[in-house]
Amino acid sequence: MNVRQFLNVLSFTYQERVRTKSFLVTTIMMFVIMIVVSAGPALLSAFSHQAPGRIVLINEARQFPISSASLRTQMGIGYIWQIGQLSHLPVLRSELKRGQDNLAGIVVIQPQGIAAPPLVTTIVRSANPAFVGPLQTYLQSLYSLTAMRRQGLTAAQDALVMAKVPLRLVQVVPTHQNRYYPIYFLEMLLYMFVLLYGSMAMMSVAAEKSSRVQELLIANVKSVTLMYGKLVGISLVGLTQYPLILIAAYIGSHLVPGQSGAAQALFYGLAPGLLALFLVFFLLGFFLFATFYAAVGSLVSRVEDVSQASSPITMVFLLSFMAAMYALSSPTSAWVAVLSFIPNFIPMVMFAREGMTTVPPLQLAVAIVILFCSVLLSGYISARIYRIGVTLYGKRPTLREVWALLRSQ
Amino acid sequence: MLAVDDVTFTAKPGQALALLGGNGAGKTTTIRMILGLFAPDAGSIEWNGQPLDQRRVRIGYLPEERGLYQKSRVSHQLIYFGRLQGMSQSAARKETVTWLERFGVRDALQRRVEELSKGNQQKIQLIATLMSDPQIVILDEPFSGLDPVNSDLLKGILMDLIASGKTVVFSSHQMDHVESFCEQICLLKRGRIILQGNLREIKRGYGRTSLLIKTDQDVTALLAAQPGASVTRQANGYEIKLDSEERAQAILQTLVEERVPVVKFELAEPSLHDIFIERMGE
Questions:
Q1: Residue ranges per domain, chain B?
Q2: Do B83 and A220 lie within an 8 Å CB cutoff?
Q3: Which fold has domain B207-281?
Q4: ipTM surpassing 0.90
Q5: B140 contacts A216 by C-beta, under 8 angstroms
Q6: What CATH number is given to the structural domain containing A95?
Q7: In which element (H, E) is residue B213 found?
Q8: Predicted TM-score of the model (pTM)
Q9: Nearest CA in chain B to A214
Q10: What Cα–Cα distance (Å) separates residue B66 from each residue in A12, A379, B70, B73, B103?
């Protein structure tokens, strides 16, 4: 490979992309969309705090003294609790049905005799709202206390009976559940990068071939040099746009004042070591797929054929993304462990494993070595396909024909 | 599949060699082997007695199907092509301007290729081929799609190249262009050479067997009666293929005896076009 020519191809590819108007437009669009998307969670939580629902509680069981103040302290600040009269129930029901006055629910407590617990009816608009669980716990403890008092237990004995059993969770393989969103976000970045810039490389190869510029180029430049110059050039285009996406995500998540919790969630636990590892998987993953995309681009004669011809690669890539999503939710499963050593799954699945739990360093090293060798192999195969493909016009060759040509060389 | 078989020819500096042949004869494949895009299964390609190293010897190549980056500016891509051919940035920039001026398209420098006319795009393509001052110039169908003015412009440039000692190899099936400046020919048919050598000698070998007669009188019957002659009537005369040069004298004598008013009586070597048709038909 000729380094000078490689750099020539690289810089031409890069400049040709970056100088276009469409590059400017897509970059601005990505920036704006990213700000909106990353501000989303913070905006949602800000709005949901501004508009808590109103719940009217009608208490007919006199033996349970329930005040709106005690409800507020026991149930948190999510809802506004009010005490109502049974005679207002029909009016309240129709109000609830029409969705008036921010009414989220009606709770009716009716006695069923001295010795029996009261009947609690919860009337809501449609879905099961969040307050039902805590309300039941609160009323349960209230009933238990009243019952114990009736049996003659003292306040000190009350405390003894009602004391909570402490629960402690010990994970043998610790998982970092609070890193779910940051890791998900990074996986998404890799996924988009491969799809966007892998197909950009493929399109540019196919366009060069269909416009016959290729003939002029391969007379002067080795196909390997040409292919890698192009791939690195286009990956640099991506790496020019990506920092802007990250900046947009940062700005977006800090945009809503007073919601620093949501902002922190997006960047939680992203230590430099983990980010460096991500960069390794990111670049190797990109080249693993992009070399095959470039090879496909070299095989088609017309740009229109590109998307159909590349669908097998896109399928394989999609599969590894889906596996990564599974790995995020169950990072310690045996399946995930197996997949994290299969070349096309390594970049996303192994990173998901490392992000959500802690993978033994040896396993991590083995995966990186496997991935690195696969990238070299895919580069070698793709360069050979590329060399054949660029001088091949007419009908798109079948896999079998490509294989036969590769062997005959 | 065998594309070319047992093809041997020599191109010399200061001469043009034409690779001729019908569609699918193996011209482009032969050119691609010279460029090192395909490796021949057997045989070699040599330059000055050494195997040709495409990285050492500058080869200017004009592909049959013209291709440029449509969206890219002329200066940007010409400098890129020049750099890929081993030129420095400044030399590539300088040659780009010089060549554009030579072709009279200096104002195309900062234009996008898609804004240029087809003829001008071909000039840009040719500049990409020649700007690095290559020792070997390979042109695949250089005349296809050019109008007469641009055709002559290209012919002039090729003459200059030959005069300056370049080795020019080109393929064509436009025989009149080939005839006007080409010394060596190599005729391919289904991947094999069926005729090669110096064009003048080849023609001389055929003898003066092509006879052209111009007359206002209808002499079709008279000529048809002549032995060893196949007659084609043309718009203002007759074209006759003779099986030997001597037949012409007998025909001339007959015409004089019959008192036919002859405007033109020309005995010539067959044109390359005729030779091509004859050899390809075999």
A1: 15-203, 207-281
A2: no
A3: Alpha-Beta Plaits (3.30.70)
A4: no
A5: no
A6: 3.40.190
A7: strand B210-215
A8: 0.74
A9: B67
A10: 20, 29, 11, 16, 17
